[in-house]
Amino acid sequence: MTDISPLAASARATFGDAGVHAVVRAGRTVHAVSLGHWVGGEEVPELVCHTGVAGWSPAALQPTRASVTCVRCLRRLGETVASQQLSLFGDV
Fold first, then answer.
1. Burial of 61: CB neighbours in 10 Å, binned 0-12, 13-18, 19+
2. What is the rounded CA–CA span in Å between residue 62 and residue 59?
3. Are 26 and 15 in contact (CB under 8 A)?
Protein backbone atom coordinates (compact mmCIF):
# COMPACT_ATOMS: atom_id res chain seq x y z
CA MET A 1 0.00 0.00 0.00
CA THR A 2 1.22 3.49 -0.86
CA ASP A 3 1.61 6.11 1.85
CA ILE A 4 -0.54 9.08 0.80
CA SER A 5 0.39 11.32 3.71
CA PRO A 6 3.10 13.23 1.76
CA LEU A 7 0.58 14.02 -1.00
CA ALA A 8 -1.99 15.19 1.56
CA ALA A 9 0.61 17.28 3.41
CA SER A 10 1.71 18.92 0.18
CA ALA A 11 -1.88 19.81 -0.72
CA ARG A 12 -2.47 21.25 2.78
CA ALA A 13 0.70 23.35 2.51
CA THR A 14 -0.35 24.73 -0.88
CA PHE A 15 -3.68 26.01 0.47
CA GLY A 16 -2.61 26.67 4.07
CA ASP A 17 -2.25 30.44 3.92
CA ALA A 18 -5.24 32.71 4.49
CA GLY A 19 -6.54 34.16 1.25
CA VAL A 20 -5.54 31.21 -0.91
CA HIS A 21 -8.50 29.96 -2.90
CA ALA A 22 -8.79 27.40 -5.70
CA VAL A 23 -9.60 27.06 -9.36
CA VAL A 24 -10.46 23.56 -10.61
CA ARG A 25 -8.03 22.64 -13.35
CA ALA A 26 -8.31 25.35 -16.03
CA GLY A 27 -11.69 26.66 -14.83
CA ARG A 28 -12.55 30.32 -14.37
CA THR A 29 -14.61 30.05 -11.17
CA VAL A 30 -12.68 30.79 -7.98
CA HIS A 31 -13.76 28.64 -5.02
CA ALA A 32 -13.21 28.99 -1.29
CA VAL A 33 -11.27 26.11 0.26
CA SER A 34 -11.48 24.30 3.59
CA LEU A 35 -9.99 21.07 4.90
CA GLY A 36 -12.01 17.92 4.48
CA HIS A 37 -11.56 14.22 5.20
CA TRP A 38 -9.87 12.12 2.56
CA VAL A 39 -8.56 8.58 2.20
CA GLY A 40 -6.86 7.01 5.21
CA GLY A 41 -8.01 9.68 7.63
CA GLU A 42 -5.95 12.37 5.90
CA GLU A 43 -7.26 15.90 5.56
CA VAL A 44 -6.90 17.73 2.27
CA PRO A 45 -8.26 20.95 0.79
CA GLU A 46 -11.77 20.72 -0.63
CA LEU A 47 -14.15 23.21 -2.18
CA VAL A 48 -16.43 24.86 0.37
CA CYS A 49 -19.38 24.44 -2.02
CA HIS A 50 -18.65 20.69 -2.28
CA THR A 51 -18.89 20.84 -6.06
CA GLY A 52 -17.68 17.52 -7.40
CA VAL A 53 -14.34 17.26 -9.13
CA ALA A 54 -14.30 14.36 -11.59
CA GLY A 55 -11.34 12.06 -11.03
CA TRP A 56 -10.66 13.94 -7.82
CA SER A 57 -7.05 14.46 -7.02
CA PRO A 58 -5.45 17.16 -4.86
CA ALA A 59 -3.58 18.19 -8.03
CA ALA A 60 -6.93 19.16 -9.67
CA LEU A 61 -7.09 22.28 -7.46
CA GLN A 62 -4.89 25.15 -8.55
CA PRO A 63 -4.13 27.83 -5.92
CA THR A 64 -5.05 31.47 -6.56
CA ARG A 65 -5.29 34.63 -4.52
CA ALA A 66 -8.12 35.96 -6.69
CA SER A 67 -11.41 36.76 -4.97
CA VAL A 68 -13.97 33.96 -4.61
CA THR A 69 -16.51 34.09 -7.45
CA CYS A 70 -18.42 30.86 -6.77
CA VAL A 71 -21.90 31.86 -5.60
CA ARG A 72 -22.38 28.59 -3.70
CA CYS A 73 -19.10 29.08 -1.80
CA LEU A 74 -20.01 32.68 -0.98
CA ARG A 75 -23.42 31.63 0.35
CA ARG A 76 -21.87 28.89 2.51
CA LEU A 77 -19.48 31.49 3.90
CA GLY A 78 -22.50 33.60 4.84
CA GLU A 79 -21.86 36.39 2.37
CA THR A 80 -24.75 38.18 0.72
CA VAL A 81 -24.81 37.47 -2.98
CA ALA A 82 -26.72 39.59 -5.45
CA SER A 83 -28.81 37.50 -7.80
CA GLN A 84 -27.37 37.38 -11.28
CA GLN A 85 -30.16 35.15 -12.56
CA LEU A 86 -31.47 36.49 -15.83
CA SER A 87 -35.20 36.98 -16.05
CA LEU A 88 -36.77 34.40 -18.32
CA PHE A 89 -39.78 36.50 -19.37
CA GLY A 90 -38.69 40.03 -18.48
CA ASP A 91 -40.20 42.02 -15.62
CA VAL A 92 -43.64 40.53 -15.12
1. buried
2. 7
3. no
Q: What is the pLDDT of residues 29-49, one digit of tens each?
A: 999 999 988 888 888 889 999
The answer to whether residue 90 is domain-embedded is no
Band the pLDDT of 84: cuts 50, 70, 90: low
Contacts of 72 (CB under 8 A, 6+ apart): 48, 49, 51
In which domain, by residue range, is 17 found?
5-76
d(CA 62, CA 84): 26
